[in-house]
Structure formats: structure tokens, C-alpha cells
Amino acid sequence: QVQLVESGGGLVQPGGSLKLSCAASERIFINSAMAWFRQAPGKDRDFVAGIRGSGIYPNYADSVKGRFTISRDNAKNMVYLQMNNLKPEDTAVYYCAADRKKGQIAVDRNDVYWGQGTQVTVSS
Fold first, then answer.
1. Which runs of E-coded beta strand occur in the chain?
2. DSSP state, residue 124
3. Is beta strand 118-122 parallel, antiparallel or unpaired with respect to 45-51?
4. 63 by DSSP, 3-state: which?
């Protein structure tokens, strides 16, 4: 069974930090590009950060560069998103995604497994 489970969301003040985690089933995690997306109310689901199966060459949306860091632990089938200096505009549901094809350098958002999402709210 395909499984991606996010955790770590919550309410944080502007300037604060959160670390999101995504636990993946081994079958879909190994050698798969992974990514985080987010969706604010009334808006499209947008790419936030991605990472290859090897863990090298992470890439980021311009809006989060320098503030967010994506990483993965291939021994634990986990992917993380460290979010620092959070802003109110970062408020959204954050989704973990795994590419359905093995060995890709980036996630194809039209051909991924999705997690159920975790809410991040940045507010004072």
C-alpha cells in the first residue's frame, strides 16, 4: 500500500521555525525524487522544495530560498522540510510527494503519490 504520512505542522509566530517530516513506505521511497508542495485556501498547490533520490542537488521555490531546507534520510525512508524565518504568507497545507517513476531528477507533479497534508499556520 502506498503511504506518505506528514507530521510536524502547527501554529507558529512570524519569524519562528517548524520542521515537517514525511514518512514514506519503502517501496515508493527508494530511488524516488521527493518534494514538498503547499496549498493555501483558494490557491493552487505550489512546489516548495524537491530533492533527488540520492539526496543531492535540492531545489527550491524562489519564495522559500534561504529560509527552507529539504533533506532526506534514506536509511529511515524519511524526508524533511526545515522551515525558518516563517512568514504569514507561508500559511498553507503542506504536502509530501513522491515521484512514481524511479531515478528521476525531479518530481513530476502530474505523476506523484501524495500524502494527506499537514497544516502550517504562521500568525501572531
1. 4-7, 10-12, 18-24, 34-39, 45-51, 59-60, 68-73, 78-83, 92-99, 112-114, 118-122
2. -
3. unpaired
4. coil
28: DSSP letter = H
Q: Nearest to residue 81, comparing CAs of 14, 17, 1?
A: 17
Residue among 35, 8, 16 at smallest CA distance from 100: 35
Asked whether the beta carbons of 91 and 124 are under 8 A apart, the reply is no
Q: How far apart are CA 20 and CA 36, in angstroms?
A: 10
DSSP assignment letter at 89 = G
Q: Give the pLDDT of residue 39.
A: 98
pLDDT in tens, 100-117: 998 898 999 999 999 999
86 pLDDT higher than 80: yes
Q: Are 4 and 99 in contact (CB under 8 A)?
A: no
Find, among 25, 15, 20, the residue nearest to 77 by Cα: 25
Q: Which residues pair with 78 in a beta bridge?
A: 23, 73
Cα 99 from Cα 28, distance rounded (Å): 8
SS3 16: coil
